[in-house]
Amino acid sequence: MRQYKKIALYCAASLSLLAAACWPVTSLLRLPSPTALIGLALELRPFSQSYVYFDSAPFAASTNPQSLQTSSPAQSTSPSPFLSQQVAWRNGATLDLAQFLGQTHTDALLVIHRGQLVQELYPLGATRETVFPSYSVAKSILSDLTGIAVQEGKLSLSDPVRKYLPYLPEKFDSLKVNDLLNMHSSIHVDEKYDSVFSQIAYMYITTDLKRFVRGLGTTPFTPGEGFVYRSIDYLLLGMVVSAATGEPLTRYLQDKLWQPMGAQYPASWSVDSDAGAVEKSFCCINARAIDFARFGLLHLRRGQANGKAVLPESWMQRPEQVGVADADFAYGRGWWLPRRATNGQDYTAIGIHGQYIYIDPVSDTVIVKLSDHGAEQDEALTVAAFHSIVASLSAAKN
Q: Which residue ranges form the domains of the chain, and what is each CATH number?
């Protein structure tokens, strides 16, 4: 046993020396510390806790939290009796709800139906206090911030992007704000999550996002290409909103959305670095599940919270379809639009590894599901399971 401890100490010492030697290299390449890189590469933490490797900008909770009526005990460990115990699943079969939550590695499941919190479930040991990263759910939130900026007259969707980002390469002169909002930019920064050498991987970890953007001059650009899902569009959109409003994106979120909607807890937005302070606006808002649920409820309430208008009512309609991703989902203004077995009104935010804020105005339901699942795994099946939950709620309440 002593020999194993000695070997472990030698290994730890060697890794420490290697990390120290690598520090200047990572700084030169605008990368996080070697310690953070090792943690990310080896997945030493679950995906739901990877935000700890990055710097972040905090924003405050509301001074007037929006109360939520509840019909079940908070932070329960078993599904509510209101929820269907069987959900639609693969190949037309059904799956027990607990099995569904287990197979999709669910950290949190919250359901608000007709204004009541009917489920707040943390199957893997998290609590209401646990912070979770949004991943690309942040795109839907940024879409709403864009709507606020438009309503305030701070920008127009027809504005050229270089009006706000003059350091962007000149070849992007034709690029409009609306192209970013609806992912029509045609900038070829591919979404290759399976390669640590991809542009999206570097964009996620770099400590200098402005330098990354200035380097887009060598990136292929095909105007008129149409809808292609690319996170670069929402990185640029966040920079545009920040420049147009004259505020850091985090402060704009805090003042215009987080506090007015009555968020119970403070939160943060991951940034490239404390020095750069550019929000990773294509992802990475770190918050409690209950406040993500409040954001969804804001959509059901036509942008109203605590008796006040927070979001433009016109922005609260189901987004118009601007492109089709596949047989299961279309896309519109930062939101995914289910194409199968729906009432035609539901829409959802989706983040990598199984993050969802699902909104169904017809049944007056919000479902928040936060997970440690595969990169883009079982998304259509998960939405089909949400349909089962909605159907059981509607039947139980009628």
A: 69-133+284-397 (3.40.710.10)
